[in-house]
Amino acid sequence: MKTFTRWPWTPIFSLGLLLALFAGCTTTKPVGKQTYTFFPPAPDEAHVQFLTAFSGDLDLGRSRSFAEYISGIKPAGPLVKPYGLALHDGNIFVCDTVQGLVEVFDLKKNRAAYFTPRGEGRLKMPLNLSIDDDGTRYVADTLRNQVLVYNSAGEYLTAIGKKDEFRPTDVAVTSNRLYITDLAAHAVKVYDKADQKYLFSIPATTNAAQGKLFSPVNLALDKVNNRLLVSDMGNFSVQIYDLDGKYLKTLGQQGVGMGCFSRPKGVAVDHEGITYVVDASVQVVQMFNQQGRLLMYFGQPGASTRGQLLLPASVKVDYDHVSYFQKYVAPGYQCEYLIFVTSQFGDHKVSVYGFLKKK
Fold it and tell me: What is the pLDDT averaged over residues 191-216?
């Protein structure tokens, strides 16, 4: 069970003061030529470490082989403006909204490739994607106004949604359902996963007294409590429902102080029910316990330093790929799981953080 050292918070109502505070929220310790960046700062116990960041496959430590030079084969170029990401079987899939493709980073080979299906399954502006346990890919394309479905080999299967009345931004997958945000309907639409048949909307009506959605942009499944979390940028909050659409509670409110949101986007939940919320305006990730209390935040807004976030968009928690990033963990710690955050600008397009535990 996680434990967090508490430290006093001072309410902050000025964005300028908040950014000034965040700019000093890391502790960087030199060890020889290596430096390690931790959150929160000393004297509090470190819980999160910035591990590394990458924008292209050459950032993963790969150099072009002689055969590639001779053949003229070029590595996949760097990400331009990423948004959503997903991880599956040693691969990191990142949606690039400018290039209109999904870039796939193979951690086993330190190599990147473009996923650019043609014909009926062609991507135009992929925003978010989810990958099922069997490798099936669900991509929310906001220019096609559909969710495109591909098998584990990347072959196009079908599309969900009518283009003239649907504007999907994210998709979450359970054993039998698909949850898809729809900006046009101000709702999350729920479909049967087997036949893509529409089932119901969350909330059930647009004039719901509680749990009303304005601009639902990102989704997360809380598998600990069987809940659906919806990041509502238009309502400056995260709305929480059960999996049948019953409204449970709201996390956060408008503001730039601690526990408030100015532009919430990505949301994720770890195996202990802790929620991670990206704020693209303040440019940090805030962490909340199951009761909605703020635990800590991490990220370095806009500065040219390790751990920076510049217009962050998506966050994902991952337990399956820790071994690939273990070499970046500071001595005396072990990494329990990884936290991936995309930034739409800057040099750190995909930042990788580790949740730490002392050895």
Answer: 92
Is 311 within 8 Å of 344 (Cβ atoms)?
yes
pTM: 0.90
The rounded distance, in Å, linking the Cα atoms of 239 and 229 is: 6
Secondary structure (3-state) at 151:
coil
Joined together, the tokens standing for residue 279 give 């704020």
Strands 300-301 and 308-309, bridge-based pairing: parallel
What local confidence, expressed as pLDDT, does residue 262 receive? 93
Q: How far apart are CA 116 and CA 114, in angstroms?
A: 6
Phi-psi region of 109 (alpha: psi -120 to 50; beta: other; left: phi over 0): alpha
CB 127 within 8 Å of CB 141:
yes
Q: How confident is the model at residue 9 (pLDDT cuts 50, 70, 90)?
A: very low
pLDDT digits (tens, 9 = 90+) for 13-60: 333 334 433 444 455 554 456 789 999 977 889 999 999 999 988 787
- H-run or E-run covering 280: none
**CA dist., res. 60 & res. 57, Å (int):** 5
* CA 203/CA 185 separation, integer angstroms: 10
Q: DSSP states of 31-80 as a string? A: ETTEEEEEES-TTSPP-EEEEEEESSGGGGT----HHHHHHTPPPPPPPS
Phi, psi of 146 (to 5 degrees): -150, 160
The answer to whether 136 touches 151, Cβ cutoff 8 Å, is: yes
